[in-house]
Amino acid sequence: MFNNLMTRGRLLKKIALEVLGDKGKSLWSRIDIVGDIAIIKKPISTSLAYDDFKLLGEALLSRLGSIRSIWLAVTPVTGPYKVREYIHLAGEPRSTTIYREHNCSFKVDIGKVFITPRLGFEHLRVAKLVESSEVVVNMFAGIGIFSIVIAKIAKPKAVHSIDINVDAYNLMVENIKINRVEGIVIPYLGDAAKIIEERLVGVADRVLMPLPDLALEYIPYALMSLRESRGVIHVYLHVRSDKEKRFYNKAIMSVRDRVESEGWSLVDAHSRVVRGVGPGLLQVVVDAKVERIR
Ligand SMILES: C[S@@+](CC[C@H](N)C(=O)[O-])C[C@H]1O[C@@H](n2cnc3c(N)ncnc32)[C@H](O)[C@@H]1O
């Protein structure tokens, strides 16, 4: 039913408008489907009351055949683990589900770990860049989606996958088994800086840094984990959008400054918008080829 994102978007819009009239106008674009759970992300300022959201939740439950549980996300992602707070709206009061992406299955608990279905394209894009001869380090791996999609599609030598949230780590361990990528995706529990310093110096051809809060600060550790003094880093950042699109260059410059201050150079770099994350705020990724110069 949800294979076609356009169809799903239209259906969500229709239901939101029918239930809430004009008040539901922009709300439909704030609904995420994760497995058999629907999440309505409450706008920071809204005239809608809990009862409005409950009505919408009940309508979604009765109209979307594959959905069993509806939750209202009442905060943005917060804290070091990037988790939202939720109120249950309708259906089973269950926060665990199986999320599917690119022929992989992921066990997830929306109340305990970071999850968004809006990174699916990015996971595939990066997986297609990886070669089978590579070793990858994923510094902020969550429940392992990026790492497992890479393992399945690119079949690299290894994807060392670190997360500091014990719930994300435990789910990653399960997801590695579910997707049969044991021996390729190697899970680590802890702070990425510490794990790299202690266990992953000079091992990687490519490093993923999918956590905008820490990405620039942790560039020294990403460089430390590269082997043969060169490699590729994918740095995810939040930037303010501007009409002239100067943010593309600004993102590259901020990565260049950090890389150069560590005695490395940026041989080549591109940036692209990954998704919108708030009013006027974008997530961008800088794909940077780097080389040690001293
Ligand atoms: C945005 S999520 C990762 C998203 C994931 N890569 C995906 O595509 O779904 C960021 C993750 O970084 C983890 N994290 C936060 N601080 C960390 C640290 N210092 N070291 C390792 N992981 C960290 C959080 O627990 C969270 O799971």
Structure overview:
The chain is an alpha/beta fold and 294 residues long. The protein has 2 domains: 5-94, 2-Layer Sandwich (GMP Synthetase, Chain A, domain 3), CATH 3.30.300; 104-108 and 113-292, Rossmann fold (3-Layer(aba) Sandwich). 32% of the residues lie in helices and 30% in strands. The strands form 3 sheets. A 7-stranded mixed sheet has the order 9-8-7-10-11-13-12, sandwiched between helices. Strands 1-2-3-4 form a 4-stranded mixed sheet. A two-stranded antiparallel sheet has the order 5-6. Helix 3 packs across helix 4 and helix 6 (192-199) packs parallel to helix 7 (219-225). The longest helix is centred in the first third of the chain and has 16 residues, at 5-20. The structure holds S-adenosylmethionine. S-adenosylmethionine (SAM) binds at residues 80-82, 114, 119, 140-142, 145-146, 162-165, 168, 191-192, 210-211, 214.
Entry summary:
With 294 residues, the protein is an alpha/beta fold. Helices cover 32% and strands 30% of the residues. Helix 5 (166-178) links the parallel strand 8 (158-163) and strand 9.
Offer a few descriptive terms:
single chain, alpha/beta, GMP Synthetase, Chain A, domain 3, seven-stranded mixed β-sheet, 13 strands, binds S-adenosylmethionine
